[in-house]
Write a structure and sequence with these properties.
Strand content of chain B: under 5%
Radius of gyration of chain A: 35 Å
Mean pLDDT of chain B: 86
Number of strands of chain B: 0
Structural class of chain B: mainly alpha
Structural class of chain A: mainly alpha
Radius of gyration of chain B: 20 Å
Strand content of chain A: under 5%
Oligomer: heterodimer
Strand order of the largest sheet of chain A: 1-4
CATH topology of chain B: Helix Hairpins
Largest sheet of chain B: none
CATH class of chain B: Mainly Alpha
Helix content of chain A: over 70%
Number of domains of chain B: 1
Helix content of chain B: 55-70%
Order of helices and strands of chain B: HHH
């Protein structure tokens, strides 16, 4: 079963510390075999999937709730699974070099493997519940990965921010998925996608779409939730290369693409996705230019790419969806490579600031070449695969129906800003005059070069021979997103048309921005006060507000006064029970009055005992009243056919009175501690509870929801359990485990009593010795 | 009989809650005793009250001759009585011990942990 092959990764993660003991520093390379094997298996499925086949691996989980652990491999899942496993393999190899000798390498391996499996589960799951579980697992594992350097305050803060933003979205997503399951009457994605327009016309469509979009947008860092992604760059670079280029941040995009056949295409979908996508695209590219930290530059350009993908899904035409899968693949390849290059630069020079680097090409020629190829693909320059993706994107948005000019304008601006980013990343560190760096730079080890080199090479190869990608994987993926079989034919040369002109103009503009980058940055710095009021400030304000509110409600509800807690509990009880008793079910009071004199006397004694205990000013009076009440209750039990209860109550009541007399007289006399006003308030609260309970009992007698099960117990007491006292039979036979539990509770209480009476804590220094003596003879 | 019991149980609850809202810790414990008794009676009466038909099976028979009182609430209440006593014993010893250390039976003076 495929599920077990994938989920065995969790087991591997658990055993990673053990592997460390055997393989030491080369554990990363050993562990890389896991995604590599899975990648080979997924590659082997390409031919079958290409023909439009969908591989299902059914496995029941909780059938009564309609939950399954079914995994489905179609074109879209396969594309994502391949990205996750292939890039995962290289990231593990890369981490072996990057984190070499790091004391927490073991922890890194455990978490990154767990993340990898969660991500695979997310893209393969067919059940909505399974999908959600894996979704949240990726949030948790990515939190652990962003906060990997937990001694660093900034890393902790960023990790928490990412967690809060994605979890808030996750809550919305849960609501959305539940509504989706209710609206569609199925919890299987395959079935939901086969429903045609049923979901789009459902009454719940608007709320469920908004909830699902909130989940997807927070996860995939769409505007205005984009701010957590650049902050997440506090993670070690292998994490950024993996989570923040190809996998985790694309989970939201995956979900949208997955639901495109069942939810996509409506006016609302097109409008929200196009506009949010385009805004995100522009925001990402615009904010990128302001930074000199190479990882932040790349992170913001990832935001830009995620916006592009969302926008393409929003446009939703066949061409747009083909552009979507192409751009997705292209971006994962070059961004993974570039992040790894950024890690190499950081690792070898000791700085992340691109303005502090320069002229590194002779020192690290391979890295420079890899960076150049990947950056050309990012810039969308021919003959790289990124160029094909960008051409398709331009072609699509020029044909968009909704918001065409807004989208085109933002896309064009984003494109030339991205080109500037690509130039900054690839040219600035390697060319120009040599600058001194904190560490003397030299070429990175092979383990760190393999990954980016292969990914960059793939960008080049697919650009030169687009038919390789177009024929296989992308056809299958596009068909899955569109919902019907299509053929993708990609070509490097489309003839001279508007997209090509746009590409060339944006290249020129981008190069100009790059040349004048320092001035541009200085100009943009004037906008800093405005930027400080962005969505991140909103997040901070919200967090402060949460702290204030929780502080306030803690002071009100948990102020340390016992009676306050009791009061809050009781008032809640009155409000909830009273509400549903009086307003929702008009009480039908059954009134069967059939009394005898002696019974009334017994019950009257009981009530008087209770009342006198409540108002008594002497301790002895209270204890005696409690005793009277207890013995009257015992009599009541006996009068109404419960001899066992009567006997037990008598015994317990006797012991209670003895206990109270023994202990209470070591305590001070009752003092009048409350004001009359407080007493009036308490009488009113207590009185309401009493009235409520009385009404509740009177109502409850009129309701018979179920046939009592005691008939069975009465009938079988002698034949099965060989006992004539049915109550005893219930205690020791039918509900024997219950009684065993009761015995345990009593034993625990007894141990507690003995411990408190006999055991004394070692005397603390500074305490008077007299206290000890006083307690000992107490 | 049931309406009278309902009123009586209501009064027991009211007395219990009133005691639990006092500041004296002893009154709180007495309130707990009242509360558990009231809850026991609530369960006991909820099955209806039957006179003179205890759930016993005479010797030589396989089943009771006529209808008997419902044995299940009785079994539940029996457990509850004993558990309530266990809790009470623990609580009483606890307050005694607390009084030894804090030297106060006023709950308001016990609200700080660093006495």
């Amino acid at each position: 079963m495929m599920q077990f092959a994938v989920l065995s990764g969790f087991v591997l993660a658990a055993f990673a510390p053990l592997l460390h003991r055997w393989f030491g520093g080369s554990t990363s390379f050993v562990l890389a075999a896991f995604p590599a094997v899975l990648a080979l298996w997924f590659l082997g499925q390409v031919p079958a999937i290409m023909d439009g086949e969908v591989l299902g691996f059914a496995l029941e989980w909780v059938p009564s709730l309609g939950m399954s652990l079914t995994f489905v491999v179609d074109g879209l899942s396969l594309l994502f699974a391949l990205l996750i496993t292939v890039i995962g393999t290289f990231v593990l190899i890369y981490a072996g070099g990057y984190l070499k000798g790091h004391p927490d390498l073991v922890r890194f391996h455990v978490v990154i493997l767990a993340f990898m499996v969660s991500m695979l589960g997310l893209v393969l799951a067919d059940g909505l519940v399974t999908l959600f579980v894996f979704w949240e697992l990726t949030s948790i594992t990515s939190y652990l990965l962003i906060g990997f350097s937990h001694a660093d305050l900034e890393a902790r803060k960023s990790a928490r921010q990412g967690l809060f933003v994605t979890f808030a979205g996750g809550l919305a997503l849960m609501a959305g998925l539940v509504m989706l399951g209710i609206a569609g009457g199925s919890w299987s994605l395959v079935e939901l996608n086969g429903m045609g327009d049923a979901l789009r016309e459902h009454d719940l469509y608007t709320p469920l779409l908004i909830c699902i979009l909130l989940g997807a947008f927070t996860k995939s860092a769409q505007f205005p939730f984009h701010f957590w992604l650049p902050n997440a760059m506090a993670a070690p670079t292998p994490v950024s290369a993996y989570l923040h280029s190809a996998t985790m941040v694309k989970a939201g995009i995956y979900l949208l693409a997955r639901l495109q056949p069942s939810l996509g295409g409506t006016e609302m979908w097109v409008g929200i996705l196009s506009v949010v996508g385009a805004l995100t695209m522009f925001t990402g590219a615009f904010l990128a230019i302001r930074h000199t930290n190479i990882k932040k530059l790349l992170a913001y350009s990832t935001v830009m790419a995620l916006g592009t993908l969302t926008m393409l899904l929003g446009i939703g035409t066949e061409g747009a969806l083909i552009a979507f899968v192409t751009f997705l693949l292209a971006h994962s390849l070059y961004k993974g490579a570039l992040f790894m290059v950024a890690g190499i630069l950081d690792h070898e020079t000791g700085t992340k600031d691109v303005t502090a680097m320069g002229g590194l090409r002779p020192l690290m020629p391979v890295t420079a070449l890899v960076a150049l190829v990947a950056a050309l693909s990012l810039a969308g320059a021919p003959p790289l695969f990124g160029f094909i993706a960008k051409e398709l994107m331009f072609e699509t948005i020029l044909g968009a129906e909704a918001y065409r000019w807004l989208v085109v304008l933002l896309a064009f601006a984003a494109a030339f800003l991205t080109i500037a980013v690509a130039a900054i990343v690839a040219l600035r560190p390697f060319f120009g005059e040599r600058r001194p760096t904190p560490r003397v730079a030299h070429e990175a080890p092979v383990s760190m070069l393999v990954g980016p080199a292969v990914l960059a090479l793939l960008s080049l190869l697919l650009g030169l021979l687009p038919v390789l990608a177009g024929m296989g994987l992308l056809t299958a993926a596009a068909s899955a997103v569109i919902g019907e079989q299509v053929t993708v034919t990609l070509a490097l040369w489309h003839g001279i048309n508007l997209p090509l002109v746009m590409s060339l103009v944006s290249l020129a503009l981008g190069y100009m921005v790059f040349r004048r980058w320092d001035q541009v940055r200085a100009r943009l710095a004037r906008l800093d006060p405005l930027m400080a009021r962005g969505p991140e400030a909103g997040y901070e304000a919200l967090m402060d507000w949460v702290a204030v509110v929780s502080g306030w409600q803690t002071r009100i509800l948990q102020n340390g006064y016992m009676r306050n807690y009791i009061m809050v509990t009781i008032l809640t009880l009155i409000a909830l029970v009273g509400n549903s008793l009086l307003l929702r079910h008009a009480p039908e009071i059954v009134f069967r009055l059939d009394v005898r004199f002696h019974e009334v006397v017994v019950v009257g004694l009981m009530v008087m005992g209770a009342l006198f205990a409540a108002i008594s000013r002497s301790r002895l009076g209270a204890v005696v009243s409690v005793g009277i009440m207890g013995f009257s209750i015992a009599l009541t039990f006996i009068l109404f056919s419960a001899p066992d209860l009567g006997i037990t109550q008598l015994l317990v009541e006797t012991l209670t009175v003895i206990l109270l007399v023994l202990v209470l007289f070591r305590l001070p006399r009752f003092a009048s501690l409350s004001t009359p006003l407080e007493r009036v308030r308490d009488v009113m609260v207590a009185g309401s509870v009493g009235v409520l309970i009385t009404l509740l009992i009177l109502t409850a007698w009129g309701i018979d929801q179920f046939v009592p099960i005691s008939g069975y117990m009465v009938e079988n007491s002698v034949p099965l359990a060989h006992g004539r006292n049915i109550v005893n039979v219930i205690l020791v036979d039918y509900r024997a485990l219950d009684t065993l539990g009761e015995i345990f509770v009593l034993a625990l209480a007894a141990i507690g009593v003995i411990a408190m009476l006999k055991l004394r804590a070692a005397e603390k220094p500074g305490k008077p010795a007299s206290q000890e003596k006083e307690s000992a003879d107490g | 009989m049931e309406p009278i019991m309902a009123v009586a149980i209501g009064i027991l609850y009211a007395a219990a809650i009133f005691l639990m809202l006092r500041r004296s810790i002893v009154k709180l414990v007495i309130g707990l005793i009242l509360l558990s008794n009231a809850a026991n009676l609530l369960i006991f009466t909820s099955a209806g009250m039957t006179r003179g038909a205890p759930p016993l099976i005479p010797a030589g028979l396989a089943a009771p001759l006529g209808p008997v009182a419902d044995p299940l609430p009785q079994a539940l209440v029996l457990t509850a009585i004993v558990i309530a006593f266990g809790v009470l014993a623990f609580a009483v010893v606890l307050i005694r011990r607390a009084y030894e250390i804090v030297k106060a039976d006023d709950l308001d003076k016990m609200k700080d942990t660093d006495t």
